[in-house]
């Protein structure tokens, strides 16, 4: 792996060095294999930056026109897959500038980097790229929430057990369960809007760290690149990767919510529950057992949440305690960030497909409702007669115990005499308690499982995504 004596002339930083780079170091240092996906952002940044140079008189109108012509040709090559990568193209910036020199001549191409550093250039490229990717994801997340809301509206009559500790607790509407997950995702949507706002500020014109030597118009650059503002400190501009951390944290959190959704659906799809059936498009079979229908889509959604968090934690460790301002450690931002963006986008789309196509089995959900789930309603019955809840809770527990000890099928099967033996305040109307529909309809307060409350939740969700 010994290096040769001659330096590589194509490097943007090559003038200081008289010896070539170790070939392994070339590979270790290169980022083009993964940062070339930012080609459009890099070319757009250069287009606007050179326009700002022309405003300063550092480029003629003719030179600017030639540069922009070359940038368009390079964009077309990347877009149609004909761009030829060459040795020395260590990153997207080097590759694009090298190709620009081949197309319009090195004399003019060599001016595009005037006053600019790869430090502010890469920070700009990343912010442009992340902004655009997050904006696409924003649209996808809205679509997922809309699918959940639509499903909840159409299936609002279906009742199912609600669970705590994975034990049957109280009856709820299936639409209420759907609203639960849509609520988490709606919060993610709000957070995403805030993340995009902090991503969308311009570092360009900060140079390597100390600022621009020719007084370039940074506000013009920011406006042209559709940034909402400017990073006001050049040291911060080139070294800030908080937006990367925030983006990956947001991705980790939304995947965590999709993992929770997936876990519920995996359980509900088992033969033991049988509440739902996944479409074949989102299931796979077993190589050995012909009867199997595995929820691989949901298991992958659940598993990828760990992968996303791992990327976040890894980059946080790379980022911590790096000295001011730019350090090569920061190059470790792109691979985990890009993977996070793709994984989150694909996961949201897969979740949308799963929820659009799964089949609900209402009779299975109904059959899973048991009268012991109305024990709290029994306690509430006495509360309405003026008995303190702490007392009614104990009384209701006695009724459950009596039903179990006398081997009846549920607390609804106890006689009025048996109820009066527990507490004399029970009357004939106690048996009106044992109605699952009535139980859910009593919970009309904001956020509850009554039809009116669920519809209000869905209406609020639609306002959020509109």
From TrEMBL:
Pathway the protein acts in: Amino-acid biosynthesis; L-arginine biosynthesis; L-arginine from L-ornithine and carbamoyl phosphate: step 3/3
GO cellular-component term (any): cytosol
Molecular-function annotations in GO: argininosuccinate lyase activity
Family according to the record: Belongs to the lyase 1 family. Argininosuccinate lyase subfamily.
Catalytic activity reported: 2-(N(omega)-L-arginino)succinate = fumarate + L-arginine
Species this protein is from: Magnusiomyces paraingens
PANTHER family with a match to the protein in the record: ARGININOSUCCINATE LYASE (PTHR43814:SF1)
InterPro entries on file: Arg_succ_lyase_C, Argininosuccinate_lyase, Fumarase/histidase_N, Fumarate_lyase_CS, Fumarate_lyase_fam, Fumarate_lyase_N, L-Aspartase-like
Gene Ontology biological process terms in this record: L-arginine biosynthetic process via ornithine
Residue ranges of every copy of the Fumarate lyase N-terminal domain listed in the record: 15-310
EC number(s) given by UniProt: 4.3.2.1
Highest taxon in the source lineage: Eukaryota
EC top class named in words: lyase
Record domain Argininosuccinate lyase C-terminal: where: 373-441
Protein name: argininosuccinate lyase
Coiled-coil zones: none
């Amino acid at each position: 792996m010994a290096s040769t004596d001659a330096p590589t002339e194509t490097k943007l930083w090559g003038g200081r060095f008289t010896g070539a780079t170790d070939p392994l170091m070339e590979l270790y240092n290169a980022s083009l294999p993964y940062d070339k996906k930012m080609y459009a952002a890099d070319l757009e940044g250069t287009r606007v930056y050179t326009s700002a140079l022309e405003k300063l008189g550092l480029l003629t109108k003719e030179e600017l026109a030639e540069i922009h012509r070359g940038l368009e040709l390079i964009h077309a090559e990347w877009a149609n897959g004909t761009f030829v990568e060459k040795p020395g193209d260590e990153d997207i910036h080097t590759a694009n500038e090298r190709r620009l020199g081949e197309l319009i001549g090195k004399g003019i191409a060599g001016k595009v980097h005037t006053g600019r550093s790869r430090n502010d250039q890469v920070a700009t490229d990343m912010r442009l790229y992340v902004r655009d990717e997050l904006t696409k994801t924003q649209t996808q997340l809205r679509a997922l929430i809309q699918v959940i809301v639509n499903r909840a509206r159409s299936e609002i009559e279906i009742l199912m057990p609600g669970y705590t500790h994975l034990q049957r607790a109280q009856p709820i509407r299936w639409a209420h369960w759907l609203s639960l997950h849509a609520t988490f995702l709606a919060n993610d949507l709000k957070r995403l809007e805030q993340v995009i706002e902090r991503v969308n500020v311009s570092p360009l014109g900060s140079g390597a760290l100390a600022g621009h030597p020719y007084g370039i118009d940074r506000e013009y650059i920011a406006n042209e690149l559709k940034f909402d503002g400017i990073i006001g400190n050049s040291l911060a501009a080139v070294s800030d990767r908080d937006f990367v951390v925030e983006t990956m944290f947001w991705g980790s959190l939304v995947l965590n919510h999709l993992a929770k959704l997936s876990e519920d659906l995996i359980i509900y799809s088992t033969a033991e529950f049988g509440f739902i059936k996944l479409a074949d498009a989102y299931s796979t079979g077993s190589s050995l057992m012909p009867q199997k229908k595995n929820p691989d889509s949901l298991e992958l959604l659940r598993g990828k949440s760990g992968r996303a968090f791992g990327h976040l934690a890894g980059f946080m460790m790379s980022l911590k305690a790096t000295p001011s301002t730019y350090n090569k450690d920061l190059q470790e931002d792109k691979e985990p960030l890009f993977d996070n963006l793709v994984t989150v986008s694909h996961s949201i789309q897969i979740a949308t497909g799963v929820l659009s196509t799964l089949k609900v089995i209402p009779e299975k959900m109904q059959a899973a409702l048991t009268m012991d789930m109305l024990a709290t309603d029994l306690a509430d019955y006495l509360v309405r007669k003026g008995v303190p809840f702490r007392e009614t809770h104990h009384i209701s527990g006695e009724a459950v115990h009596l039903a179990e000890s006398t081997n009846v099928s549920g607390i609804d099967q106890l006689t009025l005499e048996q109820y009066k033996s527990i507490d004399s305040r029970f009357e004939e109307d106690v048996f009106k308690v044992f109605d699952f529909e009535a139980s859910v309809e009593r919970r009309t307060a904001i956020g509850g499982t009554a039809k009116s409350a669920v519809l209000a939740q869905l209406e609020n969700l639609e306002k959020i995504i509109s």
